[in-house]
Amino acid sequence: MTPPCTAPARHTRRATAVVLFLLPALAATLALSACQPAGPADPTSASSSPGSTVKTSEFSTLDAAGVDTIRETQAARLDMSSGRLDKAAVRVAADSYGPEINTRGAGKISLSIAAPNGEITAETDRIRFNTTARRADFSEVTYFLTANSLDEYVALIRDGVERYGISEASAEDWISSTQADPDSKSDFSITPGTATGLTVNYDLRYDGGKDTQVIIVHVLPAE
């Protein structure tokens, strides 16, 4: 009579023990994986999904929503680093003449314009965008500077000379003449500067009989 073979039973018991030993470790690994936080979302996914309202640019738009945002935040940043401001880039229709943003009585807007060389910055309560229905860009961005004294006015002019390359000789001639007669009236356009890669013109509107003096600043595209 052949004796019974018991070796397979021992192998079976050993295999079963190994499986039972591994199961708790596998369960713990799966639980830990389930608790791991999700990785960061793709930063471009919000802007590429249809209907997304996430703002992905540092620059302002000039559609109705963009103008409302400028009024609410009292800040506007325009991109003219290419030498021009295209209508399409600020979400304005091709045949649009552009908005006028006026916050007089409600505070001033911190305006910055990225230029080919550096930046143009100002505190202003009125910004205009000039163009024609046939132009794809704006022919001019205009904003207004104000001062409550001749000294403040002169400081604004000299700041423009230093930062934008406006003619120093032209500016100082006007300053000397007006300081000699501070009660005078004068409409004078200083020779423009092009140090930023854009043409910046200071158009002086001075009236010594008024409390507030005005400089109309014209920013024109690079030629």
Automatic annotation (TrEMBL):
What residue spans carry the region label Disordered?
37-57
- What are the alphabetically sorted keywords of the record? Signal
Signal peptide as annotated in the record: 1-27
Q: Where is the composition biased (Polar residues)?
A: 44-57
Query: Is Signal among this UniProt entry's keywords?
Result: yes
Q: What is this protein called?
A: Lipoprotein
Q: Which organism is it from?
A: Arthrobacter nitrophenolicus
Taxonomic placement? Bacteria, Bacillati, Actinomycetota, Actinomycetes, Micrococcales
